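Our collaborator T.R. sent over the components below with a one-line note: 'Predict the complex.' Nothing else. No constraints on interfaces, no templates requested, no preferences about which chain binds where. So this is a plain run: every listed entity goes in together, and whatever single assembly comes back becomes the starting point for the next discussion.
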Amino acid sequence: GAVVSQHPSRVICKSGTSVKIECRSLDFQATTMFWYRQFPKKSLMLMATSNEGSKATYEQGVEKDKFLINHASLTLSTLTVTSAHPEDSSFYICSATLPASGYEQYFGPGTRLTVT
Amino acid sequence: AQSVTQLGSHVSVSEGALVLLRCNYSSSVPPYLFWYVQYPNQGLQLLLKYTSAATLVKGINGFEAEFKKSETSFHLTKPSAHMSDAAEYFCAVRQSGTSYGKLTFGQGTILTVHP
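Returned assembly:
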């Protein structure tokens, strides 16, 4: 149980375009989802906390107009990287919390974004 | 705010040897602590967690960690390393004062296992 999926697993886009990444909790309802960014050989950096039906809370330094987060249902959150640039290339990981498990985070497999 | 520090960005052991990955935390309140493992190009998998119950926590794949308040440590150990243990390991602390389980991660330790 508590499986989180991400789609796509890899995406290559051209500079200036936008790309959407989906995060789904497959077998539970997640009131909260988190989006992380991981640079090569680095730790996970929390970008934002996403609560179903409300606006995402962004961490300091993360541009909310560039990284649009939507959490329209209890099983789906999306991250849209708008007007992507090569420096946005990274590994993006989402996680979802299950209140019944004490808000333990369950992580998706990640999405590798490459902007050319 | 709580934080964790992982000592050693790389650890190399021989197959069958003891694995010891170090994590120290900083927290003004009793912390919730976690160890995660990440294989290349994959997400994170929970190995074990400390939630103020038993100080010695047993996890999956033969790993365990001991919470030592006096040393503010939560080191991860495994008696005998397997080749399949080669991965990156992250220590994390849950931030208090949030109801959503927000985590702060350490820098990560890459474990290499030699035949």
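Summary for T.R.: Chain A has a mean pLDDT of 91.
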